[in-house]
């Protein structure tokens, strides 16, 4: 046998490398490559919290914790997609699971469950292909947003979440009947505001069927009696570990 000397490749600790190790699909044709959080990202988060306190919008959070971690930094992300990606990047950077405690709802049991849940079980996505919806004789066609600069400007402008949702929907409308929507945003917001509430709510429902939505419902099973209970995880408990802020 030949005596082989293993070639040890020395790593240069000062070479800055971006390794986008995780591929995340948001919908067919919309995929991102993400890297783990670095110390500089954590510093930027602390700075943002110092500056703004609790008043941090999803897009501001994304500017420090998502966009710097993506290979394609110009991609347009909606609030739902931002929330989804935050949990995905948390899964690769901190842990892909978290601890969750609850009391079993079965009265004969009522025991304390302390379980470990996988992030992927509470961070699922729902969407359909973009298309035309017919509501009360009105044809509404939804589609992907092309002008990301305009989108983010509007998302900053509207502080109220329900106004932001409306603006988000307006910008995803390609056409209503024969009316091309993309260039006439302000007119569109007026059109919605003048609409009967029940009609607007129906359009919102149709939009929700097509848009990217985060699905955070998860069923837990009691370790003692097997009773199943559904929980909605709007936020992952201890999303950032305490050590991040020490
Ligand atoms: Zn039980």
What can you tell me about this protein's structure?
The chain has two domains: 15-118, no CATH class; 128-211, no CATH class. Helix 1 runs antiparallel to helix 2, helix 5 packs antiparallel against helix 6 (161-171) and helix 6 crosses helix 7. It is built from eight helices and twelve strands. A four-stranded antiparallel β-sheet has the order 6-7-8-9. Strands 1-2 form a two-stranded antiparallel ribbon. Strands 3-4 form a two-stranded antiparallel ribbon. The model has no long low-confidence stretch (mean pLDDT 91). It has helices at 39-52, 58-65, 79-93, 119-122, 148-157, 161-171, 185-193, 197-210, and strands spanning 22-27, 30-34, 97-103, 112-118, 124-126, 132-135, 138-142, 173-176, 179-180, 213-215, 217-221, 228-232. The chain binds zinc ion. Zinc ion binds at residues 104, 106, 109, 111, 222, 224-225, 227. Zinc ion binds next to loops.
Quantity of strands, as a count: 12
**Envelope shape:** globular
Distance between the termini: 55 Å
Task: Identify low-pLDDT runs.
Answer: none
Radius of gyration: 22 Å
Structural domain tally: 2
Largest sheet: 4 strands, antiparallel
Brief synopsis:
The protein is an alpha+beta fold and 246 residues long. It folds into 2 domains: 104 residues, no CATH class; 84 residues, no CATH class.
Tags for this entry?
single chain, alpha+beta, 8 helices
Give me the secondary-structure topology.
Elements: E1 22-27, E2 30-34, H1 39-52, H2 58-65, H3 79-93, E3 97-103, E4 112-118, H4 119-122, E5 124-126, E6 132-135, E7 138-142, H5 148-157, H6 161-171, E8 173-176, E9 179-180, H7 185-193, H8 197-210, E10 213-215, E11 217-221, E12 228-232
Helix pairs in contact: 1-2, 2-3, 5-6, 6-7
Bound molecules: zinc ion.
């Amino acid at each position: 046998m030949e005596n082989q000397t293993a070639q040890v490749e020395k790593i240069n600790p000062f070479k800055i490398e971006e390794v986008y190790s995780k591929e995340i699909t948001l919908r067919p044709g919309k995929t991102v490559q993400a890297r783990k959080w670095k110390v500089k990202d954590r510093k930027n988060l602390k700075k943002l919290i110092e500056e703004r306190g609790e008043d941090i919008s999803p897009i501001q959070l994304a500017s420090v914790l998502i966009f710097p971690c993506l290979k394609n930094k110009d991609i347009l992300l909606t609030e739902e997609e931002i929330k989804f990606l935050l949990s995905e990047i948390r899964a690769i950077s901190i842990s892909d699971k978290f601890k969750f405690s609850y009391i079993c709802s079965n009265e004969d049991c009522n025991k304390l469950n302390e379980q470990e849940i996988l992030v992927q079980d509470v961070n699922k996505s729902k969407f359909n292909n973009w298309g035309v919806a017919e509501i009360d004789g009105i044809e509404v066609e939804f589609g992907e947003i092309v002008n990301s600069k305009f989108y983010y400007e509007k998302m900053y402008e509207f502080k109220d979440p329900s106004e932001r949702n409306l603006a988000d929907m307006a910008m995803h409308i390609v056409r209503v009947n024969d009316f091309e929507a993309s260039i006439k945003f302000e007119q569109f917001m007026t059109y919605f505001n003048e609409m009967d509430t029940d009609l607007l709510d129906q359009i919102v429902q149709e939009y929700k069927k097509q848009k990217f939505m985060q699905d955070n419902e998860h069923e837990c099973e009691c370790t003692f009696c097997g009773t199943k209970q559904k929980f909605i995880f709007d936020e992952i408990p201890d999303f950032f570990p305490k050590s991040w802020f020490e």
